[in-house]
Design a protein that fits this description.
Layout (H helix, E strand, L loop, with lengths): L2 H36 L20 E3 L5 E2 L10 E4 L6 E5 L3 H18 E2 L2 E2 L3 E3 L13 H8 L3 E2 L1 E4 L10 E4 L2 E7 L2 E8 L2 E9 L9 H14 L2 E5 L4 E3 L4 H8 L2
Parallel strand pairs: 1-7, 3-9
Antiparallel strand pairs: 2-10, 4-14, 5-6, 8-11, 9-10, 11-12, 12-13, 14-15
């Protein structure tokens, strides 16, 4: 047999094998499609019972941040806070210590009553405290001077179907101070008077906050106004001028 004929026979054999593979593949696809089309759940829309939706956090603050449409995009020196984290760690007037202790007790029982797996069946909505923070008459200029670090803007990220469009709002009068790589103090003011003051700790960053830096900053704030720190995540109240309490809090 001539070499040319051998090549033709080899090519023909390859073509036959490929054709057989294509036919088998098509039959398998058609079979799978038929099974999917005959399935009673194919194309069905499944609705979730709202009562079965779990909350990832047990509590949120009732009063939201005063958000407005941003005129600038956040920069490296600014803080972007998720809306659910607003005032989850906050400074509260010392005069409200008894009230806060009562709220923390209610929250502890609430967690027991509504804990299901990794979530909660309901959410504990915290109303305004008896003493508004603004009554402490803390000036933003005094806070900035005491902390000795530059301030940034404050933005709130909000859930949206099409991020990042409309997903970030600027807090009116918002400010933030970076005390440590993963420890920030934030809030907002009206005409220079601080109306709310909170803390955010970025648990996703490597390492822990520098306790010396943090305790120094918190002590300076306590020297300006009579406040306690309330951590609603952990359900605890911390004296900002107590080094032992700060260490225990940050090392949990």
């Amino acid at each position: 047999m001539q070499p040319f004929m051998k090549y033709l026979l080899l090519i023909a054999a390859i073509v036959v094998v490929l054709a057989f593979i294509v036919v088998v593949a098509r039959r398998r696809n058609d079979s799978a499609k038929t099974e999917a089309d005959s399935s009673p759940t194919s194309g069905a829309v499944n609705f979730v019972d709202p009562s079965q939706v779990m909350y990832t956090l047990p509590t949120i603050c009732d009063r939201l941040a005063p958000v407005e449409a941003p005129t600038d995009t956040p920069t490296k020196g600014d803080l972007i806070l998720h809306e659910d984290d607003w005032r989850q760690i906050e400074f509260v007037p010392l005069a409200d210590s008894g009230y806060i202790s009562s709220q923390l007790g209610e929250l502890r029982q609430f967690k027991i009553d509504h804990k299901i797996g990794f979530g909660f069946s309901s959410i504990f909505v915290r109303p305004d405290h008896p003493t508004a923070f603004g009554k402490l008459s803390l000036r933003l200029t005094d806070l900035s001077s005491a902390l000795g670090v530059g301030s940034g803007n404050l933005f709130i990220s909000e859930p949206t179907i099409f991020p990042p469009i409309g997903s970030v709002g600027h807090v009116s009068g918002g400010f933030s101070f970076r005390i440590d790589d993963n420890f920030n103090i934030y809030g907002f003011h009206r005409d220079g008077s601080v109306q709310s003051l909170g803390i955010t700790i970025d648990v996703y960053e490597a390492g822990s906050p520098d306790i010396d830096k943090v305790s120094t900053a918190l002590r300076k704030i306590r020297n300006l106004v009579e406040v306690n720190i309330v951590d609603w995540y952990q359900g605890t109240m911390v004296a900002p001028d107590s080094l032992s309490e700060i260490k225990a809090w940050l090392q949990r």
